[in-house]
Amino acid sequence: MKHLEFSQFLEFLGTKNVEKRLEMCEKWMQMGSETKALQLRLPGNSEIPKKINKRKIPNSKNQVEQLEEKLNAIEFTDEVSDRVFSELHRLKNMNSQQSEYNILMNWLELVSNLPWNTSTVDDIEIGKARKILEDSHESMDDVKQRVLEHLAVCKINNSVKGMILCFTGPPGIGKTSIAKAIAESMGRKFQRVSLGGIRDESDIRGHRRTYVAAMPGRIIEALKHCKSNNPVFLLDEVDKLYVGNQGSPSAALLELLDPEQNSTFHDHYLNIPFDVSKIMFIATANDIERLEPALKDRLEIIEMSGYSMKEKVKICENHLVTRQLSKHCISPDYVNLDRQAIMAMSEFLQSENGQPCRAKLEEYTMEAGVRQLERNVGAVCRHVALRLAEALNSDPSADVLPDMELPIQIRESDIHKILKAKHMKQVKIVEKMRPLPPGVCFGLSVTTNGGRVMPIAKNYEIPEASKCKGTGKIVTTGHLGKVLEESILVAKGWLGANAEKLGLKTLEENDIHVHLPAGAINKDGPSAGTGLACALVSLAMGVPLRSDAAVTGEISLTGHVLPIGGVKEKVLAAQREGLRRVVLPKTNEEEYLKIDEDIRNEMDVVLADTVEDVIEAMMEKAPVLAKL
Hints:
It holds the Pfam family Lon_C. The structure is a single chain. The protein has 628 residues and is an alpha/beta fold. Among the domains are: 178 residues, Rossmann fold (3-Layer(aba) Sandwich), CATH 3.40.50; 190 residues, Ribosomal Protein S5, domain 2, CATH 3.30.230.10. Helices cover 43% and strands 14% of the residues. It has 23 helices and 20 strands. Strands 2-3-6-1-7 form a five-stranded parallel beta sheet, with helices on both faces. Strands 12-13-15-14 form a four-stranded mixed beta sheet. β17 and β18 form a beta hairpin. α6 runs antiparallel to α8. It is elongated. The C terminus is likely disordered.
């Protein structure tokens, strides 16, 4: 009745008789229908309805029927079957226009796409597995042995239940690739889930369906894409999980990695138990100290150390060169990268006058692994590809390269022209500090990038110039942690207790200043006690320590040297820096004997049981062994 005029509304309201009102309404309705029919017949009228081309929408009934067929083909447990088919029955009786219809449809599609009964057959042959590990990885004999033992148990028990392997070590040493080798040796599918930077528990266990845009967790989503319920599952970077406002992801992993609970793993979105006990879980981490204790308790830690120089050269020859040539589509017949060129990328440089000069690995590849070394090999391959492209000119399909001798020889001198500037402008702290003044000692530390040499510098104020004479105050600089500060107090306490026996000054009348370089980097750890004690003794005696030696180990107040970790990384760090004597705790002899024989023959390692043994080894009047 929108076409009525205002006067007609007033007439309608002024009439009190109901029958007259009905007659007026009937009359106006007839008049409105006639007016509308007249407007439809007018040519060019904008209100003439146009033909609408509707897109054909698939029949929702067909989708439901197809979904029902997929669900009927899956063998569920009784508990899961009752839940799934009750939801399917509810979907059938639901109007497709309801908001919950699509939510329920997506949930049932996820259920139908999960590998409830789909498995791969294990094909574990120890000989085959050993060959795969040997072909894909150099050295790491202890790691390979542990992996083979784990596979042998899986073959005998026909099950993978048990401890979860966790490979820890610096980046680029092959943690992920060894997990792929395990999957290949077992004949299983490989699935990787990166956990770095996760702060929300829902990333692991999913969101509840009551939330808008709810999604399943990464575990269920990965199984959906994997289409197998027994893959080798790599949980990458488990040490980089953080606690946020939405819960702890590390705590969410506890149910997943517990062999007694993961047969009924509950994802919040799926909300029905799913058996993940057939999955072989493998974790990787760079720093196990950042793992939560409960999560660390469920993992079997396998430490993987960095590579020595000889190991890196061997890896480059057997793996990296072949991989980069294939990546750059260069035939191995077109290039010849000799051993001296590989050594040039790793250890040796050549000066402008052609005379060989020694340099450090860190000038091109400052790492414990081989990632930067592989990038350098890639740079050489790009140089070769450019020369080949220039020779081909406008005929890239030619079979013969004109005016070019093949294979292209890449020599040591070519390496420095290709790589040009050194990637790592590392300060040669060992050479800068020589000759050592009294109170300076070379210590050893382990970081997530491998081992490194850390100078420990001490000095005390001259009594005549000190404003705090007789206080014995200790000043620390270099961003030291609480453990390091306590090690300084222990070293000073030991010196005060044994000064009379050793005939030394107690330094009680002098303030002591302890500094570790690179002040912007946090430094902490328990293995600096012996180095601090040596620096204090050198300071009290006024006698410098050996400039070719480094020391590591913690001490007690009674003077005993306590064991430390990261022995191989620390020995390799001393080797890279040109130091040839390393003083280690005697209790770490077993870890030292696991180091390659070539490195042990090259290095002069002293095993000390007391602080006196350490001081004797660091102050021995012997010829300098380092290559200056």
